[in-house]
Specification:
Helix content is 52%, strand content 19%. It is α+β, with helices and mostly antiparallel strands. Strand 4 and strand 5 form a beta hairpin.
Length: 269
Amino acid sequence: MTDIPGEIMGYFDDFQLLNVTDVRMCGSSDVRMIHTSCHYIGIIRGSYIIEGNTENRPMVYLTPANIDTLGGWFSPAGSYRDNLYIECTGARADRFMSAFSAVTATSFIPVADPEPFICKLLELKHLFADGSLLHRHRIILCFEEFAVLLESERQAVNYAGISRCNLENVLRQISREPGKKWDFSALASAAGITLRHWNRIFSRVTGMPPGSFVHACRIKLARELLTSTDIQIKEIAGKCGFENVSDFSRFFRKNCGISPGRYRRNRVL
C-alpha cells in the first residue's frame, strides 16, 4: 500500500469545526458584549433586532474571530428567533470570512430561501457528531457547498440591488439622452462589478445588450423629432449622437428601411 504524502493529509487540516448549535430564543434576551475566539457562521429566522431595526427575513450572519461584538440579538417581546450556527477556525475559515467581507465586524446576507442553508448546517451538525475521520473530511466538502450557496445568494442580492438602485436610473438617463456618448465601463465600475457582469445584468433586465438599447432609444427619439417638430435633420442627427447627417441617415435607413426625410414627409401626409 502506497503511503499518503503528508502534504495531502494536511489538505484537510486548514478547517476545524468546533461546535454546532441549534437554539430557539424567545422574548428579549439579555445581550452582552463578548470577545469572539473563533468564527461564527449561522442563519437566523424569526423576529430579531439588529442596530435598532426589527428584521423578520431569514439572514445568514458571519461573525469573525477576535472582535468585540454583541453576543446575540434581541427579539421583540413575545416573539422568537431560531438561531442555527457553527463555530469554526482555521485558514480555510479565514479565507471564507474574508471573501464575504466579515473581517472586523459581522456581515449579514439576507436569503430568499433559508432551507438549503439550514440543510447544510444540519448536515455539518450530523457529521460533527459522528466524529469519524471520513466524516471529518466530508465536513470540508459540506462547508465548501455552504460557501457556494452563499455566493449564489449574494450575487442574486447584488443583481436585485443593481437593477433597482443603479440600472433603472441608467435606463432613464439613456432614454432621456440617447445621443450622449455612454461609457459602459465607467457605469460598471460605479456599480462595483466587472463590465462583463454589468452587460449580463443589463441584458437580463432589458432583453438586449447595452449598445442595442442605446440604438433603440436613438431611433425612438429620431422618429419623435421627425414627426412632432420642425427641427432640421442635421440638428436631429446631433441630438441622436451623430456628428453628420450622412451617418445618421445610414443608421436610420438601416433600422427603419427609409430615409429620415422620406419618413418625415410620409408622416406629414
